[in-house]
Specification:
- The chain is 29% helix and 24% strand.
- The protein has helices at 13-22, 61-69, 96-112, and strands at residues 29-34, 37-42, 45-51, 54-58, 73-74, 86-89.
- Strands 1-2-3-4-6-5 form a six-stranded antiparallel sheet.
- The model is unreliable at 1-6 (pLDDT under 50).
């Protein structure tokens, strides 16, 4: 697992290239910048991405618990503040079948969620 540095969460080019190879090939998927690197969205919902060089996926409760039991950990972009539905996959580049399976499940989950409403700018 890459060291976490809240000041510079950017991933290296090799990790970004590897990540793109795992994103499901689906016309409903869009890649966008997130956390200083890249993430995949479907139906306006983020479902997988990179934080530093860690790959994370968004999973429903039962699948998330299974992922945690298999060695994944909750995504914590800020220490002590985990993102509820997201798990980081350790050694993801050496487990391509596992990553493809979770990426597919994560996409299905994102597509089952209601689209997020567009936020309007806050007045200051």
């Amino acid at each position: 697992m890459a060291p976490r540095d809240a000041r510079s969460p950017k991933s290296n080019p090799a990790a970004r290239k590897a990540f793109k190879a795992f994103v499901p090939d689906d016309p409903r998927v869009a890649l966008r910048p997130m956390f200083g690197t890249i993430a995949a969205f479907a139906n306006t919902q983020m479902f997988m991405g990179l934080f530093n060089d860690e790959l994370f996926v968004r999973l429903p409760g039962d699948e998330r618990q299974a992922a945690l039991a298999s060695g994944c950990h909750l995504l914590e972009p800020m220490p002590g503040r985990p993102m509820r539905e997201y798990v980081s996959v350790p050694d993801w580049q050496s487990a391509p079948d596992r990553v493809r399976e979770w990426a597919g499940r994560s996409l299905v989950y994102a597509l089952s969620l209601p689209a997020r409403e567009k936020r309007t700018a806050r007045k200051r």
